[in-house]
Write a structure and sequence with these properties.
It comes from Chloropsis cyanopogon. The chain is mainly beta. It has one domain: Cystine Knot Cytokines, subunit B (Ribbon), CATH 2.10.90.10. It is 9% helix and 40% strand. The chain contains 1 helix and 5 strands; from the N terminus they run H-E-E-E-E-E. Strand 1 and strand 2 form a beta hairpin.
Length: 134
Amino acid sequence: MSPFFVISLLFGLIFGQTASLCAPSEYTIHVEKRECAYCLAINTTICAGFCMTRDSNGKKLLLKSALSQNVCTYKEMLYRTVLIPGCPHHTIPYYSYPVAVSCKCGKCNTDYSDCVRERVRTNYCTKPQKLCNL
């Protein structure tokens, strides 16, 4: 191996997190309730992007700390609540959703994130749509 390759490999392992491209990204959520007349399209931000991970194929040869399977997750978030229009009086017309303020590469926290790959779902409205820009 050339010295340049070894130095590049060590640099990548040490400073790999700085090469990650994990940041808040614009996303539209479509929310509807069966009882309400409208679907609400909400523009928000989520954490998305690339995080450096290390392959665990050599897990018997490496220390556990050298094996990282990081994901792009929330560093800081807040919740906003909107009113879904066209709901009858007996229905709770509010919907709360997360807004990513900042993101980080780290372990997935199941307290506030879905850490498994979702099955294919559509993100659209089946009722007349109202746009919510906050």
